[in-house]
């Protein structure tokens, strides 16, 4: 990838990350980059959204169901 293409890709990721933050999606740059790459490969964006939402829901559920740590002595 030449330097101009790399700059454009970085700017596009920055813009997508900024929009993600405004929408409070809870995605980090790396995750967003992977999702964009998967879309570029032809995966259905709506299916990816469903997967991300389910993973976030499972993560939140496991965090709320986790037993509290034992008290320290």
Automatic annotation (TrEMBL):
Record's keyword terms, sorted: Cytoplasm, Cytoskeleton
Lineage: Eukaryota, Viridiplantae, Streptophyta, Embryophyta, Tracheophyta
Pfam families according to UniProt: MOZART1
Compartment(s) where it occurs, according to its Swiss-Prot or TrEMBL record: Cytoplasm, Cytoskeleton, Microtubule organizing center
Cellular-component GO terms for this entry: gamma-tubulin ring complex; interphase microtubule organizing center; spindle
InterPro entries: MZT1
Family: Belongs to the MOZART1 family.
Designated name of the protein: Mitotic-spindle organizing protein 1B
Source taxon at top rank: Eukaryota
Organism: Morus notabilis
Presence of the UniProt keyword Amino-acid biosynthesis in the record: no
Major subcellular site: cytoplasm
GO biological process: gamma-tubulin complex localization; microtubule nucleation by interphase microtubule organizing center; mitotic spindle assembly
Keyword Kinase tagged: no
């Amino acid at each position: 990838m030449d330097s101009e293409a790399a700059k454009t890709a970085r700017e596009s990721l920055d813009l997508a990350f900024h929009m993600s933050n405004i929408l409070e999606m809870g995605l980090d740059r790396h995750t967003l980059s992977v999702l964009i790459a998967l879309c570029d490969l032809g995966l259905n964006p709506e299916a990816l959204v469903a997967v991300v939402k389910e993973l976030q829901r499972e993560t939140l559920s496991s965090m709320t169901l986790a037993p509290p740590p034992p008290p320290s002595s």
